[in-house]
Write a structure and sequence with these properties.
It is elongated, with a radius of gyration of 23 Å. The two termini are about 40 Å apart. About 40% of the residues lie in helices and about 15% in strands. The chain has about 425 residues and is an alpha/beta fold.
C-alpha cells in the first residue's frame, strides 16, 4: 500500500464503514475502549477462566528472524494448561512457522499477498479469521499485522488486543504514524522490548503512556548450552587453524550494518595472521555484500553461511561476536550471543546499549564507523583475559535481566488481566457462557 493511499484511507476512517452488516455504523468514537485497563492500574481481581484462554498471534510471515523466533518461543513456552495458542500469517508460514507446525502447533496461513492485495481485503480476511476463531487475546507483531489485525478486530469486542513494536523508529513514515496513532485507541497494550522503542512509539505515534508496556525479550539460556567443545565446533566448520574467528548473525539488510564490518576487515588483516569472519543470515543485501567482499579481496576471510538453526554450535566456534547495526529494537541475536558467554562488540544503538555497559559486559562503538569496530576487535584480540571477563559478565546479564521464564510470566499475567477486565470478572467468578 502506498503512502498516499494509506493517507487517503486514514483521512476517511471516521466516516468509512469498516465491514458489512451490523458493523457498518462503527466509527472512531467507539474505538477508544475507555473501560479498558491502563498500564499502572491496580490489577484486576484474581479470577481465573475455567477453560484455556485462546490466544492468536498474527504475523506477516515467519522467516528466520528475531521477532519470529521470539513468537516461536512464546508459543512453545506459554503454559498449555492455561492457554490455547495459535498463529496466523497473512502470507506463507515461512520456515519458523513450518517448524512450529512440525512440532504440533497450529499455524494457519491466510494466503494473502500484502503487496498486491488491497488494505480492505486484507482487513476483511483477518476479520473473518477472528470471527471464526474468536480468540480471547489477539497479539499482533510488526507494522502490517499490527495494522490489519487491529483494524480487523474493531467492533468484535475481543477481551484483549495487544500489538508488539519490535524496532526503533529511525525512518518515520507519516502514514504509519497516523495509523498507529488512531489504532492506539483500539489497543489494550502496545508492547515494546526496549526503552528507546517505548520513547519512539510515545513520541512519533502519540500512543498514551498508559497503554504502553515495556517488556524486555527473554532468551532460553538452556538452549544455548553447547553440545560440542570449541575444537569440535571449529572442526565442523573447517576452522581448525584460525587465529581469530568473528561472527555476525542477522538478516542481510541495511539496518544490520554488515557493510561496515566488512570495511573494518582490511585493517584487521594487517594485524591478525589468520582471520575468519562468519556471517549468518539471508536478505536483500546479500549480493551487494558479496560484491564488497570481492572488491576488498576478502574471499579467503569472509564466509556467508546463510540461514542456520544451529546457533549454539556456531557461537561455540567464535572468539568474538560483532553486531554492527545502524538501528535496533532489542536484538535477540545479540542477547543470544551474550547468553552463550561470548564477548560482544556492538554499536551504540537503542536496545544494544541498554543490554551492554561498555567495558563491563561488552564493548560499544559508534554506528557506521568501521575504524572504531576494527579498534575494538583488535583490542579484544590482544587481551584474551578481557574476552573471558566480558563473556562471563554478558551471560550473567542475560540470566538476570533477559530470561525467557521472566518474560513468559509477565506475558501470562498480562493476558489473564486483560481477559478479566474485558469480561468484567471479579472475585474469581465467571459467567457460564465463559466457562463453556
Amino acid at each position: 500500500m502506498s503512502g498516499r493511499a494509506a493517507g487517503n484511507l486514514a483521512a476517511r476512517i471516521p466516516l468509512a464503514p469498516l465491514a458489512a452488516g451490523k458493523d457498518r455504523e462503527l466509527t472512531i468514537a467507539v474505538w477508544r475502549k475507555r473501560n479498558r485497563p491502563l498500564a499502572g492500574q491496580v490489577p484486576a481481581p484474581s479470577g481465573l477462566p475455567a477453560r484455556r484462554l485462546k490466544v492468536l498471534h498474527l504475523l506477516a510471515t515467519m522467516p528466520v528472524g528475531g521477532a519470529e523466533d521470539l513468537v516461536a518461543a512464546i508459543v512453545q513456552g506459554l503454559d498449555p494448561q492455561r492457554f490455547a495458542i495459535s498463529v496466523a500469517t497473512l502470507g506463507p508460514p515461512g520456515p519458523v512457522g513450518q517448524e512450529l507446525r512440525a512440532r504440533g502447533y497450529e499455524v494457519a496461513s491466510l494466503g494473502l499477498d500484502i503487496k498486491r492485495t488491497s488494505t480492505w481485503r486484507l482487513v476483511a480476511a483477518v476479520r473473518r479469521r477472528l470471527k471464526a476463531g474468536r480468540p480471547d487475546i489477539l497479539h499482533t507483531h510488526l507494522y502490517h499485522p499490527n495494522l490489519y489485525g487491529r483494524l480487523g478486530a474493531l467492533g468484535l469486542d475481543l477481551p484483549g488486543v495487544v500489538a508488539a513494536v519490535h524496532n526503533s523508529y529511525t525512518r518515520v513514515k507519516f502514514h504509519r504514524r497516523m495509523w498507529n496513532f488512531l489504532l492506539g485507541w483500539a489497543t489494550d497494550r502496545v508492547l515494546v522490548g526496549s526503552a528507546q522503542v517505548w520513547a519512539d512509539v510515545r513520541r512519533y505515534d502519540g500512543v498514551p503512556a498508559s497503554r504502553l508496556l515495556l517488556m524486555p525479550y527473554g532468551i532460553p539460556l538452556a538452549e544455548l548450552t553447547p553440545r560440542l567443545s570449541r575444537q569440535e565446533a571449529r572442526e565442523r566448520l573447517g576452522l581448525s587453524g584460525a587465529d581469530l574467528v568473528l561472527g555476525a548473525v542477522g538478516r542481510l539488510e541495511e539496518q544490520k550494518g554488515h557493510g561496515y564490518l566488512l570495511a573494518a576487515l582490511p585493517a584487521l588483516q594487517k594485524q591478525i595472521s589468520d582471520l575468519v569472519v562468519l556471517i549468518v543470515g539471508e536478505g536483500r543485501e546479500e549480493e551487494k555484500l558479496k560484491r564488497q567482499v570481492r572488491e576488498l579481496k576478502l574471499a579467503n576471510t569472509v564466509r556467508f553461511l546463510g540461514t542456520r538453526r544451529d546457533l549454539p554450535e556456531i557461537f561455540r566456534a567464535l572468539d568474538i561476536f560483532v553486531h554492527p547495526s545502524l538501528w535496533e529494537g532489542l536484538p535477540l541475536a545479540l542477547l543470544k550471543a551474550m547468553g552463550a558467554g561470548l564477548p560482544v562488540v556492538a554499536t551504540r544503538v537503542s536496545g544494544s546499549q541498554e543490554a551492554i555497559e561498555d567495558g563491563v559486559n561488552g564493548c560499544l562503538v559508534a554506528p557506521g564507523d568501521p575504524e572504531a569496530l576494527a579498534r575494538a576487535i583488535l583490542e579484544l584480540h590482544r587481551h584474551p583475559e578481557a574476552r573471558q571477563r566480558l563473556g562471563e559478565a554478558a551471560r550473567r546479564t542475560v540470566a538476570a535481566r533477559y530470561s525467557i521464564e521472566a518474560m513468559l510470566q509477565k506475558l501470562e499475567e498480562l493476558y489473564l488481566d486483560l481477559w478479566r477486565r474485558g469480561n468484567r470478572i471479579e472475585g474469581g467468578w465467571a459467567p457460564k457462557s465463559l466457562r463453556d
